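tool=predict chain=A
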Amino acid sequence: MPSGKHRSRTFTRKRTRLPGKRNVIHYDRRKPGFAHCKVCGKSLAGTPRARDSKVRSIPKTKKRPERPYGGNLCPNCLKLKARAAIIAEAGQ
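tool=predict ok
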């Protein structure tokens, strides 16, 4: 019987065969959900879906898109924000 912390389905179960021909179950944490846009809530593309410990080992350029507000806003919301800024600047 697994220990208490492994009884829930928080952990995914992976059957693994060891070199000594023994079958065991390895428990892994599930992947977190996708990052979401702060304005519209749409899931963001170009951001990794991994735990913090894994994300730390990924290069900075692979963690979010290389544009202003990359990893925070989706391209559509960024476009609207940029247009609003241009209109506000032109009105002054």
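Helices lie at 52-55, 75-91. The radius of gyration is 21 Å.
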